[in-house]
Protein 1
Amino acid sequence: MAKVKGTSWVIAALLGLAAIGVTAVLTAAEATPPRVHAELPAIVPAELPFNILISADRPVSFTLSYGGEQHEAVAQELRLELLALSGAQTLTLSARDRAGNASHHRFEIFGIPLAQPLVRAPERVIPGEPFSIRVALPPEAIAISELRISLADMPLRVFRNDSEAVALGAVPLGSAAGEQLLTIKLIDGFNRTVVANHTLRVGDYPQPVQELNVAANVLSVVTPENRALEAAVVEAAQAAAKPEPVWREPFLLPAEGRLSSPFGAPRRFVRGGQVAFHHGTDIAAPVGTPIMATNRGTVVAAGFYPIRGGFTMIDHGGGVFSHYFHQARLHVQVGDLIERGTLIGEIGSTGLSTGPHLHWEMRVSGISTDPLAWVDRMFP
Ligand SMILES: [Zn+2]
């Protein structure tokens, strides 16, 4: 077998010729055209090499042409490495024996180009503003075996329909004004990797720092142990997230009341303390005011905790979770499948709270977003 590659193939073909010379015990002049067997792929990844293996029932001189290039060799079996071209290409092959009998063959080979994903995402965002990222693929693209979208190296949950991949994201509160990079990485069925980037310009989020002056006895629940305990509850609940969004209608305001503290406000709990961002929206209302699920989902956490107080967390799929803090009573349990508007609890002042209110969060892949940006709006 002559294994040839690049410029060395002529030399290999000459060696093949020499070998034939030695064993030239040709069975008279055959009158039938050479029979040829070819092993070659019908679909190839464009711009990458592929192998073909050709054999004939007798030593022949092969003439092969593909993509405007011609290759010749005298051999009975020939292995060639060709560089795949994009689109539909014809490979022609002729085999001629010493008696002049010839056979001619044609093969169609389709070269699949590297998919160039078309990315749609906003150009400008402010921290905590939820947005969608859509990645469309050209129709001729080969099946994608893996697609990842990350924002500043943090992975976002990706869900897909037939023609595009979608993720919801947000720039975290506290991010500096400037640029953040969305990276789309996909691996196709030929194991080729494509990376596309999209730059988000992050706007300023100027807000005055609120001085909450929370009483020391209320603040005493904020200990490293309590923080760690609650973070572990949230993390475990997030880990089992449903990949696909389950909602079919816009999100709703979960309680009626006065909007008492906006999302994203920088604040200090005590004078001279550290500035922390407000990761939710506060709705102040009397104890016992009904709290409704903002949308369809599965209850993934429900219980009483030192900081969050009466706490419920709902998984809406697609990496989106709603959180409800400080409830007086809970009306749902972990595992409950609930519809949009289902009564899930009652407003209270449990946990780190100075008066009856609902602290409502909407998180996307763990990043807090402005809850009011979801109301009456259909995402993605
Ligand atoms: Zn709050």
Protein 2
Amino acid sequence: MTNMNHLLALAAAAAVASGAQAQTPKAELESVQRAVHVCASCHGENGVSAKALIPSLAGQPREYTIRQLKDFRSQSRSETDIQAYMWGISALLSDEQIEGFADYYAAQKPPVGKSTQPKLEAAGRAIYEQGLPGKGVLPCKQCHGDNAEGASGFPRLAGQKADYVYKQLQAFRTPLRPHGVVMKNEIAAMSAQQLKAVAAYVQSR
Ligand code: HEC
Ligand code: HEC
């Protein structure tokens, strides 16, 4: 798919999301800005979120974003906030539009890590790099990368807000986030404190 097709897909998504009719190619192109602005109102300019419970999308691997948007559209990822914020908008998106958003965000500059709790982060780093061998917890870096940069279906975690990360780790304990069986195994034996530590660590990266 060409870049221009992506732009048009984004424009069409904006038109639907804003209830407007995109009538001329020019109007469609002008509304490209609006397309991403619909998302930016929550996820931040260029996909870098300023809010604790809203994830950054910038720098997220394309494959991961596509999977999540499809999970929202099929209503298989169904945490309360996903239902409230993402079900409605994702229902309007075609596969091509989803790919357009995924490409756009994969190309944005990722969020910069922020260290707030050095002690907790150090405990989280040990889990991130070594896992908890006695408990069957694999090192997170095996899938999420040495720098938590993610790849393909493994999300980027670096710079993601600790509150959001912690909330997702808890969500994997429930049927509301059904995909990522490996994650469910991963966290089964981890305490809330250990999840908080690793969430603080990835935010700091
Ligand atoms: C009204 C606010 C709002 C708008 C508008 C919005 N989102 Fe979201 N989005 C959220 C919230 C809140 C979450 C996280 C909910 C949770 O799991 O706690 C989320 C989650 C996501 C995720 C999952 C990220 C991850 O790391 O798993 C993706 C992808 C996403 N949104 C893409 C988009 C795109 C693309 C748009 C524009 C078409 C958009 N969102 C518009 C609020 C919004
Ligand atoms: C064997 C591979 C694997 C390992 C090891 C692993 N993960 Fe994951 N992780 C995944 C996959 C795959 C997903 C995406 C699941 C989905 O599609 O919803 C994921 C998703 C996540 C998410 C959701 C991100 C978001 O934006 O919503 C978080 C947070 C996370 N992992 C943290 C961790 C932490 C912390 C560890 C170490 C304790 C870890 N992972 C170890 C494979 C792994």
